[in-house]
Design goal:
heterodimer; A: 206 residues; mainly alpha; Cytochrome Bc1 Complex, Chain D, domain 2; two-stranded antiparallel ribbon; 33% helix; B: 465 residues; 2 domains; five-stranded mixed sheet; five-stranded antiparallel sheet; 8 helices; globular
Chain lengths: 206, 465
Amino acid sequence: MSTTTSASSRIAVGFLVLAASAASAWAAGGHAPYGFGTTPTESELAAFTSPLPDGRGLPAGSGTVAQGDALYKGQCASCHGDKLQGGIGDRLIGGRGTLVNDNPAKAPIKTVESYWPYATTLFDYIKRAMPQNMPGSLNDDQVYALCAYILSEAKIVPADSSMDAKALAAVKMPNRDGFIPDHRPEKFPPVAKSPHQMLGFAGPLK
Amino acid sequence: MRERRMPAEKSGPQDSVADMLREAEDRALVADRSDPHSPYHPGANATPGGRRRFMFGSLAVAGAVASLPGLARAKGSLGSEEHDVPADATKVPGYPLADESYGTRSQFETEVRVRFKTATPLSSWTFTPLQGSLGIVTPSGLHFERSHGGTAVIDPSKHNLFVHGMVRSPKKFSMKDIKRFPSMSRTMFIECSGNGLTEWSKPTMKTVQGTHGLTSTSEWTGVPLRTILEEAGVKPGAKWLLAEGGDAAAMTRSIPMEKALKDCFLAYGQNGEAIRPEQGYPLRLMVPGFEGNVHIKWLRRIEVSDAPFMTREETSKYTDLMPSGKAVQFSFEMEAKSVITSPSGEMTLDGPGFYEITGLAWSGRGAVRRVDVSADGGKTWRQAALQGPVMPICHTRFRLPWQWDGKEAILQSRCVDSTGYVQPTLGQVIAMRGLNGPIGSIYHLNAIQSWLVATDGKVSNVHYY
């Protein structure tokens, strides 16, 4: 609800427009800018972090594998396992070579190591959503350190690595080229040719 | 909302995901079958006049009982108030009208959402009880839920939406500001792209709540996203925007600018009142026809960009892994789909005779044009009646009268949308996308559902194609 003051000033504006042209005061509505809202401050916007894969948007700071190791043991291992093998939270490493598979009895193992295409996503996700019981509690140096540690356990970067904005954006993830655009809507093969058909035939629509 | 995140999946074998779902459903059904008021109760259909539908289930009650051991069923169902039941309601006054009230449902109505027992209730989902659905609208309290950091509690007077990035003038809108813009309403479905993920390689869930309960329809009210973007002034070269939630997961997804300007809107209303907390109170991004996850709840920020952000939910999750090892990314649209909600799994037909076959059909690409129903596993089809008005990107109710002869029958529905797309059989989908593990490529399963009616009237979930 607008205040009385702004309501009356809007009415005043309305009358002015009306005076100019009776039709335009009721015109189709779309006339940005309406002038609602305010301009956010630099510091309000600085509270948000959303890096792009090329590294734009990554903050300053850095952290080493060793620092990440200690942080992981204290703040992550309880849910993701001391060997990053998973628990309440996802398994984080392993699974390379399991993605090519057409066997319903065998599951692919999708982890940061085997599946994630960009290392910048790791910074972004840990920064805003982890640890799950205290999201948003880690500073940028700590998040870089955790990225370094997880990527090192995944054997994507050496164990003496340090991560910062430049180094993280330069990491080439093993499954970097593993994604393709949506090809739907699909042109399905005829029902009679589908492989698992047991019985029946869906005839053409009448 | 689609995914599953249990320890088992994390360590590889996805099979146990389905096992967990099945166990949760089983617990619910066991409780339900022992409830004489439940349509899943063995004798339930013996009182035809008493029930609008001979066999509607209340998985719900089951769920409530399972999760709240202290709740005695005699106290009335969730969301109701218990009143004494007179032998003859014409002989005693009813309960008086309160000076102020919000209203509850009847104490005899027991349907509830049922949560899938993930490792943590902070990242979990609940299914809408479609078996009892009437018409096309889902009651707000039964709209399916999916969240990754619990349900956020937000004071609307302190909530802001920031719009920044590639815009001429960054903006901060209070909820009051948002509500001053010209408004709009739209009745539409939201479906989690993980709806039916247990059903890829074998029939797994027993009821339609379990196989299809991650779709719901509401009337949503809000402001076109285009209006908000125009207010900030999108700069040339902007191609994507990031939408971020103000919950503990700070859920983020990238949306193509073209879609944002076409028909997205920001909803603050649901079914005539404020949007429910679990649906994103006070503000939710609506992306008509796209998978549920991109309808960012508790919306607090929009960042305009020239490229997608590649967030965790559009890389690690919500991507469809094919047998080739390549994963389809940004598979946004929910394709045409339909399901018979009655008769459906775990119901029992009370002998040969007349039954109405009814269900829901929907498409993220347009309106439902027709629905065909088969009682012989797809050999022959009959066109069902569609309840109007048929709206695009909205649940559409279909109905067909049926005379059951007491012989084994396989009920299926198949819809066609306004683009001419025909809902495929499961065999066609598998031929196209393969089966990379027990739950295949997880997302976007929209195959024809089969319900087997046995000669004893018992209905069950089968694969038949």
